[in-house]
Amino acid sequence: MVAAGPGGIPPERVLRELADLWVALGKQGQDEGGAGVLRACTLTLVVLAEAGDDAMALGETIAALMPEHPARAIVVKLSGAGEHALTERVYAQCWMPFGQRRQICCEQIEITASDAALADLPSVVLPLAAPDLPVIVWLRSARLFEMPPFGEIARMAAKVVADSAGFADPKRTLRLLAETARGGVLLGDLAWTRLTRWREMLARLFENRDYLAKLARISSVQVAYDGEFATTAWYMGAWIVDALEDAGVRAKVVVGAGRGPAPLSVELAGGGFRVVLERREDRLVITVDNTKNCTNLPQPGDYLLMREELGIVRRDAVFERTLASAARLAYATD
Amino acid sequence: MALENPFQDPLRFERQAPECAIVIFGANGDLTRRKLMPALYRLAYDRRLSAGFAVIGISRTPLSDDQFRDKMLESVKQFSEDTRVDADVWAAFARGLYYVAGDLNDAALYQRLGQKLTAVESERHTGGNALFYLSTQPSQYAQAALGLGAAGLGKGSGWRRLVVEKPFGDGLASARELSGRLHEVFSESDVYRIDHYLGKETVQNILAFRFGNGIFEPLWNRRYVNHVQITAAESIGVEGRGEYYQEAGALADMIQNHLLQVMATIAMEPSASFRATSVRDEKSKLLRSMRAMTPDEVRRNSVAGQYGPARIGGVDVAGFRQEPGVDAQSQTDTYAAITFFVENWRWAGVPFYVRTGKRLPKRVTEIAIHFNPAPLHIFDDDGGESAPNLLIVRIQPEEGISLKFLSKRPGAGMTLRPVSMDFNYGSSFGERSPSAYETLLVDAIVGDATLYTRQDMVEASWSVVEPIQNVWREARFDFPNYAAGTWGPAAADEMLARRGHAWRKP
């Protein structure tokens, strides 16, 4: 990691510091007898995080994402109330690919902004984005979602990734997310991304022709969740009902807080056919009628979730439809 | 109409191999141990195999299912380069491994296989789907296919497909005959001729590079391309395969299949879609556009070579004729360099130099596209003649693409120097690339034949290679004609020099 000087934030100065950084890294690489550094960049990743966010864990997540999604990372730390303050530092994350002599580096800019300086943030972030490459915003701060500067930052982004699991009011969150998506912002929600392997397991189950033939029997879908999985549960219920409708099957869906040992469980049932998926620690237990199967399914961390979202910088029709359905479903049950 | 699974989400879900049984003929062989089983295990590790998946190994050696499982575990441990052997994943995977011992010429083997397939179908829910993988001696391909047919295993309640390893015949007639025998049991659309080169990420990336970008294709023709060099060099010798290699040679072993397929990928017209039929139609068209040379043209445009003994890095290295199992007077080519021409409007007059060899200085496979120099040299010393624009697609060992062009040297004056703009596939995307066999096995199970070779492609490439073979068979070469550890015979340099070109030293 190479640090450059702190100070105010005129974008030209930050970009000059970045250029100097690359020259220094190149010289350093050659002085050490290597083949120099290779700069890699496929996008700009803007991370909006609270100052209390675990900086080390976040840094590790960003570093882990870089080899597959090399990016100019702009990490904005929201320092909260206080005087108008906006500072920055510039550094690089480098790694040596296995078996190769050349270092690969990605640049990082860290900006610290107080609430009073939030209004200035878009004008700082916009010119710092790598030219001609998509800007992805990773929103780790729930409160920023409803603050005015966020709308401006979201408008410059090719995609905004939030995590509704950390938001206080799940139903209201779903409605706001659905409105944001309707407003033309390409959205991702890690609460939805957490379901990918679950959904994949359910889909895989119905690759079996015998089970697929029993699909029409399903008349009820129940999703039970523990606190933090609320929006995830609404997504799950909405997605299943939408998929069943596509197959011409109408089923009643109930999403509610569970009382069992599983933090999240799903049951599809009807006509003597019953499929249950339950998370038990790092295992997913799948029960079809009386047959139980257990598969390894560790809870995905931020790295795996963001890795998946960064790989999809285009419209995700299934998510968009599910988000709209989940918002409707959540309010219909009030 | 069959009901479709409404829960599928191709944007998010990894492509998964549907339920099936893979029947591997030659289950104790090198290919199974080194490539197939590690690839299948990796697919299981990545959860890309269905729960209804099974492997039935077939070979002559009597083994129980458990002994076969133990043997395969050893292979996976030894040959999985970048995959951790996880005890739980292996245990689940190994439960789907079975073994049937027998002789491919014995009809009873196929009866026993049929019984095993039925038992495995009910035990593992494979849906009656079966992929038969011929990893045997090529001489046994037809016998195995006909044996399957006679036992009624060519058809079943699910799909049935046949995977065949190269060589696909040893000439045009034998390739046709082999296809004819296979077609007695399997239709052409169910025959998957595997060429592992086509499963490599960079070879697939050629298609992405050419047809996913708009800026290169306008340059991709005789007006801008001066010539193309395709090199597949190996630093090793025949490594105990002398007996087999002696019958094949570099031309048949590498150029007829791998390198002509790579050339077809580089030179084909854009296909209308990325569907198997469209892509393979264009490759086939390209191969059929290649000039089949007359004997005189063969003598001018081809060079055969064979390595002799040398001392490399302080170690004495045997010549080909000194390798075990090789005839002391062998006329087998361990090196082949050919100048091919494509007779279509895009490529007329552009030489495609293709070379391959054993015991060359390093292991490297690459395609170098040499562009015409700038039409006018306005700088006094621009090195334009000696450093033409060059686009290099590296297939191995470090996959990537480089573009070489001239740039001003910093400082006073206007001195130019060549610089290289590199895209390194492995390091720009740090994610592990699947092995060629992982890609191709899933393709075959899914039923995607895009990266497999079709009968007409095989026949077209033999039509180009066979005239060269015929001339070489009648010739008496003064072998060895290059020392191990060098870039091949001098005659290969002369072949290019006649057109004012020189081989790259990769």
Summary of the model, kept short:
The complex is a heterodimer of chains A (334) and B (506). Helix content of chain A is 37%, strand content 28%.
Features:
heterodimer, A: 334 residues, alpha/beta, 8-stranded mixed beta sheet, 37% helix, elongated, disordered N terminus, B: 506 residues, 14 helices, 18 strands, globular
Q: Number of helical segments of chain B?
A: 14
How far apart are the first and last residues' alpha carbons of chain B, in Å?
A: 55 Å
Strand content of chain B: 15-25%
C-alpha Rg of chain A, in Å? 23 Å
Helical fraction of chain A: 25-40%
Shape of chain B: globular
Radius of gyration of chain B, taken over Cα atoms and rounded to an integer in Å: 24 Å
Please, how many helices of chain A?
Answer: 11
Biggest sheet descriptor of chain A: 8 strands, mixed
Strand-pairing-aware structural class of chain A: alpha/beta
Number of strands of chain A: 14
Strand order of the largest sheet of chain B: 8-12-13-7-14-15-16-17
Q: What characterizes the major β-sheet of chain B? A: 8 strands, mixed
The helix content of chain B, as a percent range, equals 25-40%
Task: Give the low-pLDDT segments of chain B.
Answer: none
User: How many E-type strands of chain B?
Assistant: 18
Distance between the termini of chain A: 51 Å
The helix/strand series of chain A, from N terminus to C terminus, equals HEEHEEEHEHEHEHHHEHEEEEEHH
Write the layout of secondary structure elements.
The complex is a heterodimer of chains A (334) and B (506).
Chain A: H1 11-31, E1 37-39, E2 43-50, H2 55-65, E3 71-80, E4 86-95, E5 103-114, H3 121-128, E6 135-139, H4 148-156, E7 159-162, H5 170-182, E8 187-189, H6 190-193, H7 196-205, H8 209-213, E9 220-225, H9 230-246, E10 252-257, E11 264-270, E12 273-280, E13 283-288, E14 291-296, H10 302-310, H11 317-332
Chain B: E1 20-25, H1 30-45, E2 53-59, H2 65-79, H3 87-94, E3 97-101, H4 107-124, E4 130-134, H5 141-150, E5 160-165, H6 172-183, E6 191-194, H7 201-212, E7 225-233, H8 242-267, H9 276-288, H10 295-301, E8 302-305, E9 307-308, E10 310-312, E11 315-317, E12 335-340, E13 352-357, E14 364-371, E15 390-396, E16 400-408, E17 416-424, H11 425-428, H12 436-446, H13 455-474, E18 482-483, H14 490-497
Helix pairs in contact in B: 1-2, 1-12, 6-13, 8-9, 8-13, 9-13
